[in-house]
């Protein structure tokens, strides 16, 4: 890994987070919130990872473009990300789709979400733009990517994740030469191009792009004038630059932030119920693949004022206990038994209930004698006494949203429909 410059490039960069996505594969979890606003890891939201990476990398100007059902996302950022100070040359702009270009035009694509705010970007006079997706879980120091961008003379540098070649069929895949210059960009190819020298691996785009600001604005204006464009980075802007300019791949392994406990670069698109459940449950491992306890790279978020978690009762079959689990503040485990589970703030688990492989979002109340296995429970759900989930797949599929991997998503409207 290259040494950092004495004067960080991040101080002259703006991070622009694209956070308008619906996240339809998360089903009812995104009925009331955008995917970046979905809860993750016990106390955070998914967007906190991209924002924390930018802050920890030294970037002090951040913009977040929102669109789909943005209220909870905006509220979260107002509460948890309101510490930037203009007098320190810092800024944090929330940029909803506000029809700035046309009275009838919302954000039409990822590129348009930047194009419509060019005037705001120009006002800050930053040299570099770091374009980020707001819906992935990972730790990355963008300074290294900025340095590579400058040193290589690229028009665009694209963050790339090395994946098994045939697993890349669901991604945008970059085809590189021996110098990591991108010679082709293919969206969800049936036969992904391999990395030179690694026939079984491919580079998947992470949706992270670095540009010089002046060049990006020129490209956005060119694209906006093209009536055939879909106004999207992955479909329009990037393929054009690959063909007509210089695009370079940045290897995520070179800038991934890892503590002493993390063996491999960690990046997850938690865009399905199964992936979301697994990434949360991964945090309950003795040595998790993602270290959220690393104080050198904190994941900033809205820190609620809450009392400590509490475990009560010590009777036979009624003992408040949790093993291999993550329990947030203001949880009361009252005679319940938990294993391999993750509970967000304010959960109440009542006597004789048992949770195995449960991801429980804030303010859920779990009734007595409930037996819940491999579930995701949405915010504020009241689980009735004696409810059993995870033992009868056919019954579960009738009552709840059951994923291909056998995970049951439980929401309050589903509970309300039960004939108990």
TrEMBL record:
The keyword Metal-binding does not apply. One of its GO terms (biological process) is glycogen biosynthetic process. Residues 307-410 form the Glucose-1-phosphate adenylyltransferase/Bifunctional protein GlmU-like C-terminal hexapeptide domain. One of its GO terms (molecular function) is ATP binding. Pathway: Glycan biosynthesis; glycogen biosynthesis. PROSITE patterns: ADP_GLC_PYROPHOSPH_1, ADP_GLC_PYROPHOSPH_2, ADP_GLC_PYROPHOSPH_3. It is an enzyme of class 2 (transferase). Homotetramer. Involved in the biosynthesis of ADP-glucose, a building block required for the elongation reactions to produce glycogen. Catalyzes the reaction between ATP and alpha-D-glucose 1-phosphate (G1P) to produce pyrophosphate and ADP-Glc. Belongs to the bacterial/plant glucose-1-phosphate adenylyltransferase family. This is Glucose-1-phosphate adenylyltransferase. It comes from Rhizobium metallidurans. The lineage of its organism: Bacteria, Pseudomonadati, Pseudomonadota, Alphaproteobacteria, Hyphomicrobiales. The gene is glgC.
């Amino acid at each position: 890994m290259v040494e950092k410059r004495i004067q960080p490039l991040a101080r002259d960069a703006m991070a622009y987070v694209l956070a308008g996505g619906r996240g339809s594969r998360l089903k009812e979890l995104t009925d009331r919130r955008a995917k970046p606003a979905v809860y993750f890891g016990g106390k955070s939201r998914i967007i906190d990872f991209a924002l924390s990476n930018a802050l920890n990398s030294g970037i002090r100007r951040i913009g977040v473009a929102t669109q789909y059902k943005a209220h909870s996302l905006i509220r979260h950022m107002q509460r948890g990300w309101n510490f930037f100070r203009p007098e320190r040359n810092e800024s944090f702009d929330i940029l909803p789709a506000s029809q700035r270009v046309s009275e009838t035009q919302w954000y039409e694509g990822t590129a348009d979400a930047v194009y419509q705010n060019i005037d705001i970007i120009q006002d800050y006079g930053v040299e570099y733009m770091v374009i980020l997706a707001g819906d992935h879980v990972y730790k990355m120091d963008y300074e290294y990517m900025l340095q590579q961008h400058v040193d290589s003379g690229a028009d665009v540098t694209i963050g790339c994740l090395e994946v098994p070649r045939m697993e890349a069929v669901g991604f945008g895949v970059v085809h590189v030469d021996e110098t990591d210059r991108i010679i082709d960009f293919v969206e969800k190819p049936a036969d992904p191009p391999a990395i030179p020298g690694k026939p079984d691996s491919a580079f998947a785009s992470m949706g992270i792009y670095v540009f010089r600001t002046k060049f990006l604005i020129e490209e956005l204006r060119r694209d906006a004038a093209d009536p055939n464009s879909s106004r999207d980075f992955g479909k329009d802007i990037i393929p054009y630059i690959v063909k007509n300019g210089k695009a370079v791949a940045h290897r995520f392994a070179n800038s991934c932030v890892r503590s002493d406990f993390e063996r491999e670069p960690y990046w997850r698109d938690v865009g399905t119920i199964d992936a979301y459940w697994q990434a949360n449950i991964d945090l309950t491992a003795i040595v998790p693949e993602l270290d959220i306890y690393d104080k050198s790279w904190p994941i900033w978020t809205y820190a609620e004022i809450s009392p400590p978690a509490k475990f009560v009762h010590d009777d036979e079959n009624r003992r408040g206990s949790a093993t291999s689990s993550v329990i947030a503040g203001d949880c009361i485990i009252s005679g319940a038994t938990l294993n391999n589970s993750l509970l967000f703030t304010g959960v109440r688990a009542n006597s004789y209930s048992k949770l195995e492989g449960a991801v429980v979002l804030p303010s859920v109340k779990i009734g007595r004698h409930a037996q819940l296995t491999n579930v995701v429970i949405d915010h504020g759900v009241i689980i009735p006494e004696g409810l059993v989930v995870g033992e009868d797949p056919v019954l579960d599929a009738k009552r709840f949203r059951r994923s291909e991997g056998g995970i049951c998503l439980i929401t309050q409207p589903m509970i309300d429909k039960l004939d108990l």
